[in-house]
Amino acid sequence: MTNPATTNSAEHSTLAAGDANQSATSTPESSAQASGQGSTTIADVVVQKIAGLAAREVPGVYELGGGAARAFGAVKGRIPGASASAGQGVSVEVGQKQAAVDLQMLVEYGVTIPDLAEDVRNNVIDSVEQMTGLEVVEVNINVNDVHIPTDDSDGDQGTGDRVQ
Fold first, then answer.
1. pTM of the model
2. DSSP-assigned beta bridge partners for residue 164
3. For the segment 16-32, what is each residue's pLDDT rounded down to a tens digit?
């Protein structure tokens, strides 16, 4: 983002009112910031949360994050008043006009992973671009585990009546 303190103001004083409104995306100097209307800064954590929520919306995504992050999230989720972070399993790089997203995810057993990855990628791109105005240049997806419904059992099933 262009720093208003370092911008050459003489260069901007020659713009006519119509020229300043021509294209808000051509250069930072011709955006609302250069016209004196202010600037907008979007923090990395905002993009991270949007991407995380968008990824979780897609059916077939069981959870985001690596093993350690999911374990920490599970412990944190048991604490009253605490909740797992919406940005868990998501890392982002945010520039002036573009963003890149990396996702770590656990998928449901039985889903077609390439199709799921494409759906997640499209939903993340659409959500981030719509909400922030940033161009998402890439969404890298790392599927690090598959959730099997029997993984949720308490461990008591399958032991039979051997020990009571």
1. 0.64
2. none
3. 334 444 433 333 332 23
